[in-house]
Design goal:
This protein is an alpha/beta fold. Strands 3-5-2-1-8-9-10 form a seven-stranded parallel β-sheet, sandwiched between helices. Strands 4-7-6 form a three-stranded antiparallel β-sheet. The protein contains seven helices and ten strands. Helix content is 37%, strand content 20%.
């Protein structure tokens, strides 16, 4: 069992690593996307944070730099919290390793998502590598679904696939978070969540390893509020409890 001192030390080391790499990675990303037209920014949709105690699910999407960003956030999250589902772009087999590592580091229970599992409070479910994960309501429960299916935005798991299912099946009692990553996976899905009344957060440019996915979501009007990485956990606790 990891001590609080070890949690703090690990968080500080990871945050420093992210900060040191951010400028270089951002420069590379800007060069790669220099000739790509930005998405048209749509009219903002007014969404208020949910009433206290009404949040049933938190959905998070991440890619490049996401494993370390997730570590920073998860170490600062404490019970009681609603279930958390995560789509992180990751190869097969590595999702289980990530889940095991985060489970050792953080106060919540972290595990790989499975087909047909009823999600529980204070538990984090990470989409298996090379598989899509969705959620749906079965009776009074929220259940994870895991499937193959075609890649979306060249990604499997896809953040959009997860967010789309949250928008359709959970709606206004969900929170959405989009973290560092290249490309635009998750932007459309997060917008659907916001259109259904979900409150949404995006990682800010300064703390992203690559400000691609959060930028695409922000430009589409999908993000209610942008925050630095180290402020996201506190915001989730304040909103979700």
């Amino acid at each position: 069992v990891m001590t609080r001192a070890a949690w703090k030390k690990g968080k500080e080391e990871r945050t420093l690593k992210i900060t040191q790499n951010a400028d270089i990675a951002h420069s590379i990303a800007q060069k790669l996307t220099a000739n790509i037209s930005p998405a048209k920014k749509i009219e903002q949709i007014a969404v208020a944070p949910p009433a206290k105690g009404t949040t049933e699910l938190i959905a998070i999407g991440s890619s490049t730099g996401g494993t370390e960003a997730l570590s920073v956030i998860m170490q600062d999250l404490h019970p009681p919290l609603p279930p958390i589902v995560i789509a992180q772009h990751i190869p097969a087999l590595f999702a289980k390793l990530l889940a095991d590592r985060l489970n050792e580091e953080c106060p919540l229970t972290v595990q790989e998502g499975k087909e047909g599992e009823i999600v529980k409070r204070n538990t984090v479910y990470i989409a298996p590598g090379n598989l899509h994960m969705t959620v749906e309501r079965v009776g009074g429960n929220i259940v994870t679904r895991v499937k193959t299916g075609p890649k979306v935005h060249s990604c499997r798991p896809s953040v959009d696939v997860l967010f789309d299912s949250v928008a359709e099946n959970i709606g206004s009692v969900a929170l959405g978070v989009i973290l560092t990553g290249m490309g635009h996976d998750g932007a459309a899905g997060l917008l659907k969540m916001r259109e259904q009344g979900s409150y949404t957060l995006g990682q800010d440019e300064a703390t992203c390893v690559v400000y691609g996915m959060p930028k695409a979501a922000f430009e589409r009007g999908a993000v209610c509020k942008q925050l630095p990485l180290t402020a996201i956990a506190k915001a989730l606790e304040e909103i979700a409890r």
